[in-house]
Amino acid sequence: MALIRPRLTDHHGIMVAQQELDFAIPFFDEDIPLYVDPFMLWRSPSQQDQALHTSLINAFNHLGQLVSKGHEAQAQATLIAASECDEVGLGSSATRKGKRIGEGKAKEILALFKRIPRYSQSGFRHFEEIQLFVDGISKDRISDISCSFLKSFLIDFTIQQCDKIGIPRQAVDVENVYDYRKNVFETQRGLLLPVHPSDGRPLLFVPKRWLRFVPWLSYDDYFETYCPQDEISHKPEELTRVEVLDYNRDHYGIVDAYVQTKERTFEDCKNDPLFSQIPITSAKRKFAAIRKLPTGKDDNSDQKYEKAIGQLLPSLLYPKLDFAQEQARTDSGASIRDLIFYNTLSTPFLQDMHKDYGSRQITVEMKNVAEISREHVDQLNRYLAEELGKFGLFVTRNPLKKAVFTRTIDLWSGQRKALIALTDDDVGQMVELFESKQRDPIDVIVKKYNEFRAKCP
């Protein structure tokens, strides 16, 4: 059984919590659903980030200089090259491969340098303003352009982070690295970087402090909070995006006022974490709802149970365990839902799970049944193999009956597998610890495991 939703660190056996790292850990088969927001560099107290923002804006504004000198073809080629940065794996693609903008869209963006006097005279202060003038430019494009122009820094940052935690590197060529002395993109050859294991493509890391779900300057925010909708249309409820963008191109002062407002409130601009725990009140509400659910499948109780546990447990166990994903599998025609967690080795207990049971990931099977049967135990037993390791958890409603508990003891005696069950009472105790913050909710699992081991021969 291969690892579920593997990350670069897991692939190399480096089991460290995302919270402990300065960069977002890349996935192999999908993008991280966050984006580089260049405003995060502008508002940063770090002199390095501010300097990188200046370099980014200078690179973008150089396109305007090319346009003014009649070198539009060169400006277009440079902008098209900058519009995608597959090496960083940010966004919403399920394949880690994006698509560059076309020549027409590049011309539309570059036309802003001629159309709007402010840009033709002194260039952009924040190039993400292009979202407010050109249709089809959104957060993923802003992020990719930023990463492309900052790729030289990202290469150095990636090398530094790899050496810090021991991620292997190998020689690769990296295309479209911007040279600030020549103002052109070039291929850099023989760089020692981490690579995708299936095709050898280079991978680049991005500082977590730059990442947001939505840019600080965005079309949706502008439209909701600043756009003079009544001025543009007598029927603002029917106002189209294209009408707003056309209006903005002829009324730059409105956009400029919006940008200045956003600059003044820069302290409210914070990076978004890769995982957010649910609030304590939500945790208590979800557990109260679980308590009220009947066992079994009537009225979709099993699905409601799985959904509530699936939302609750990742928050209770964070940051000791990073959530991988909810996983559906079938066993003899029965659909089974698991929660999969990355083992971060961040506690002595998790280190023991790796050392004693080979658990690189922790599997949690959710069962909204009155009692766990021998068949349930055998299903989970078959699933726990190879890379997933030999430690597994049931989250269920009631304690195991004696005969079933004896079956789990027999599995430990014969195969050195540990299967333990968390009940409603255990989950309730985890919620209490989550609220009080006096101890860590994972301690409940540790207690249950110790009770199990005390019964083993």
TrEMBL record:
Top-level division of the source organism's lineage: Bacteria
Protein name, UniProt field: Uncharacterized protein
Lineage: Bacteria, Pseudomonadati, Pseudomonadota, Alphaproteobacteria, Hyphomicrobiales
